[in-house]
From TrEMBL, chain A:
SUPFAM superfamilies: Thioredoxin-like. The lineage of its organism: Bacteria, Pseudomonadati, Pseudomonadota, Alphaproteobacteria, Rhodobacterales. The keyword Oxidoreductase does not apply. It comes from Thioclava electrotropha. InterPro entries: NADP_DH_HndA-like, NuoE-like, NuoE_dom, NuoE_N, Thioredoxin-like_sf. This is Formate dehydrogenase subunit gamma. Its cofactor is [2Fe-2S] cluster. Belongs to the complex I 24 kDa subunit family. NCBIfam families: PRK05988.1. Keywords: 2Fe-2S, Iron, Iron-sulfur, Metal-binding.
TrEMBL record, chain B:
InterPro entries: NADH-UbQ_OxRdtase_51kDa_CS, Nuo51_FMN-bd, Nuo51_FMN-bd_sf, Nuop51_4Fe4S-bd, Nuop51_4Fe4S-bd_sf, Thioredoxin-like_sf. Its cofactor is FMN. This is Formate dehydrogenase. Gene3D superfamilies: 3.10.20.600, 6.10.250.1450, NADH-ubiquinone oxidoreductase 51kDa subunit (3.40.50.11540), NADH-ubiquinone oxidoreductase 51kDa subunit, iron-sulphur binding domain (1.20.1440.230). Residues 419-464 form the NADH-ubiquinone oxidoreductase 51kDa subunit iron-sulphur binding domain. Belongs to the complex I 51 kDa subunit family. It comes from Thioclava electrotropha.
Length: 150, 507
């Protein structure tokens, strides 16, 4: 399938659905790894919105990216319960170990902040790909990344 | 041998899948018949992964388990991780579990388990009673919204029921973005049919034929479980074209958020559901009259809806017997952060804050002295030992300049840096503000800067900070900007010296 066919298929999937924009954007991001700007107009046409409306929605939500993330996305919880268990120090140590900051992509790895994963009773918490990590340590996160990279 | 290993995200985050796999392979090696049930969690998160084994009809607990602890389960003699009968563990035995009665006991996706454990009885009763009587029961129960604001659920339903419209909706707010909150997630993963039943009852009561569950994208496990549960309930003819084959139509759809805290606010959530930016709408019109897609809509939190089946089965009056003052029934309290026994504790309103932190929570996890507990999420106030007598109920916390909110309690030990936490509160508001009003959009950024000036020792900055908090509180359209001053001011009041102030200057 060409790129355009993929988008057309997603749009067809959601035809007639009430308030379909978010589900469409999620599907687009799943297909392309991000929401490319050249998707805005076709999506707008399908939903009878303006291109600006679509752009405005994409930029409002933290989830939607304009460029694909690294192969391994590490989400680190910055919220209070994780802070109370040394989350900030854990993040700092991981940043040092990986030589990068939260918000950056380096090689295969993207480091991201997240504000609560609902794992506050086993803080600090993180998510590596779709693997949840409770009682997280930098060592455990690094080991997980090494495991999935192998 | 029948064994339970939780599939709850917190248990999985602590290695439950690895433990389940080790159990299966150990059983295979020994040629033993082992039935592994993936249950929800009992909520004793410090013991997760908590494995349960049935012996003479009693479920015995082992935890926190690692794969290395598994082989000993098959051997005679005492297991080092043995906890005894799981329902006799004090943290569990002290609870009043109404909403979470099934969570941790059953296989979340087994319709047979659900039916055998009071499942669909509330819906059956609602079908017998009809809409008006069902709302009457909910009103009698005294149930108030568990999502934070504490608005009476019966009144909300009555407004929607009374609205005349060709289409009405039930929207379940499963955006649960507060730090320290995980009860919604736990229920959706551990007993999803209970939420489905509560929503079906709500639909029946107000005349809505469609329900949406808006779940935050940070909860992929809950999203999967609910989708599977909805499919199963539909296939069994419980929801869909007709409720249980005898009632009106009611169907459900899961919608996934996109990482925005403000979408937990009900009008932002509705905008997001409609495919717009999650901007807060001014009220009125109330969502009850003009909600999703402009139609009358019940917006309720997961726990409000999940409380309803019990209320219908046992009666509103029985529910109202629990609680304190105008806070009726039970509240699923989430104890988290730097605490020994973190987890979910459901109890009638009224337990004191000190009991909760010291006895139930068992003090700090680090063993260092307790410093403060933040109650009600990122917009909630910090409380010190002076507040330990406060009973957990909406009024008492409001009187002390705080809030119960979604009942998340986050404990900090004496290493907590209160200035950093106050700064974080402003930073969080700046990151998550919807941007609609100036006091919040700009105020939070100025708040960060002002706290940096405080940290740098600027004596004029604290006065400015108080003024800024005043403007944010009074001038913000919603509680995001309006309540961000709560954690900031309470931190200053409790620990003035950390803001380079003397005690008097802080008062
Ligand atoms: C900033 C903000 C965030 C909120 N987040 C949530 C949330 O995550 N979940 C929730 O149920 N209610 C949340 N609320 C409250 C909702 O606006 C609304 O009161 C609630 O969903 C109504 O349901 P209830 O009556 O069952 O509590 C939030 C409110 C504000 C102002
Ligand atoms: S207070 Fe903040 S989040 Fe609420 S409406 Fe105003 S800008 Fe939006
Ligand atoms: S605060 Fe980090 S998981 Fe909830």
């Amino acid at each position: 399938m060409t790129e355009d066919d993929r988008l057309a298929a997603i749009l067809a999937d959601h035809a007639g659905r009430e308030g379909a924009l978010l589900p469409i954007l999620h599907d687009v991001q799943a297909a392309y790894g991000c929401v490319p700007a050249d998707c805005y107009q076709p999506i707008a046409d399908a939903l009878r919105l303006s291109r600006a409306e679509v752009a405005g929605v994409v930029s409002f939500y933290h989830d939607f990216r304009d460029a694909p993330a690294g192969k391994h996305v590490i989400k680190l919880c910055r919220a209070e319960a994780c802070q109370s268990m040394g989350g900030a120090e854990m993040i700092a140590r991981l940043e040092r170990a990986l030589g990068m900051k939260v918000g950056e992509t380096k090689g295969d790895v993207t480091l991201e902040a997240v504000y609560c994963l609902g794992l506050c009773a086993c803080a600090p918490a993180a998510m590596v790909g779709d693997q949840l990590v409770g009682r997280a340590t930098p060592e455990r996160i690094e080991a997980l990344v090494a495991e999935v990279s192998a | 041998m029948k064994v339970w290993v939780p599939c709850d995200a917190a248990a999985v985050a602590c290695g439950a899948d690895e433990v389940a796999a080790a159990l299966a392979s150990a059983a295979g090696l020994r040629g033993e018949e082992v039935e592994i049930v993936r249950n929800g969690t009992r909520g004793m998160i410090w013991l997760e992964p908590l494995v349960e084994i049935e012996r003479d009809g009693v479920r015995h607990g082992f935890g926190p388990m690692t794969p290395e602890d598994v082989p000993a389960l098959f051997e005679d003699g005492d297991h080092p991780k043995a906890l005894g009968p799981v329902e006799e563990i004090p943290f569990f035995a002290k609870q009043t579990r109404l909403t979470f009665a099934r969570c941790g006991r059953t296989d979340p996706l087994s319709l047979a388990d659900y039916e055998a454990d009071e499942g669909w009885q509330g819906l059956k009763r609602a079908l017998e009673l009809g809409g008006a009587q069902t709302i009457e029961e909910v009103t009698t129960s005294g149930l108030r919204g568990r999502g934070g604001a504490g608005f009476p659920t019966g009144i909300k339903w009555k407004t929607v029921a009374g609205a005349d419209a060709p289409q009405k909706y039930i929207v379940c707010n499963a955006d649960e973005g507060d730090s320290g909150s995980f009860a919604d997630r736990m229920l959706m993963e551990g007993d999803p049919f209970c939420l489905i039943e509560g929503m079906a009852i709500a639909g029946l009561a107000v005349g809505a034929t469609k329900g949406f569950i808006y779940i935050r994208s940070e909860y992929p496990h809950a999203i999967r479980t609910l989708n599977a549960a909805i499919k199963a309930a539909r296939a069994a003819g419980i929801i869909g074209d007709s409720l249980m084959g005898q009632g009106p139509a009611f169907d459900l759809e899961v919608r996934v958020g996109a990482g925005a805290y403000i979408c937990g606010e009900e009008t932002s959530l509705l905008n997001s559901l409609e495919g717009k930016r999650g901007m807060v709408r001014a009220k009125p019109p109330l969502p009850a009259l003009e909600g999703a897609f402009g139609r009358p809509t019940v917006v309720n939190n997961v726990l409000s809806l999940a409380a309803v089946p019990w209320i219908l089965v046992h009666g509103g009056a029985a529910y109202a017997e629990f609680g304190l003052g105008r806070s009726r029934g039970t509240i699923p309290i989430q104890i988290a952060g730097n605490v020994k026994h973190g987890g979910l504790f459901e109890t009638g309103f009224g337990m004191s804050l000190g009991t909760l932190v010291n006895e139930i929570g068992g003090g700090t996890a680090s063993g260092r002295p307790f410093k403060a507990v933040q109650v009600g999420g990122p917009l909630g106030a910090y409380h010190g030992p002076d507040d330990f007598d406060l009973p957990v109920c909406y009024e008492a916390f409001a009187d002390q300049g705080g809030l119960v909110g979604h009942a998340g309690f986050v404990v900090h030990d004496d290493s907590a840096d209160m200035l950093a936490l106050a700064r974080y509160a402003m930073e969080f508001c700046a990151i998550e503000s919807c941007g609609k009003c100036t006091p919040c959009r700009i105020g939070a950024v100025r708040g960060i800067e002002t706290l940096d000036r405080v940290a740098a020792g600027d004596p004029a900055a604290i006065e400015l900070l108080h003024e800024l908090c005043e403007v944010m509180e009074k001038g913000s359209l919603c509680a995001m900007g309006g309540f961000t001053p709560y954690p900031v001011r309470s931190a200053i009041r409790l620990f003035p010296q950390e803001f380079s102030l003397s005690q008097e200057a802080a008062e």
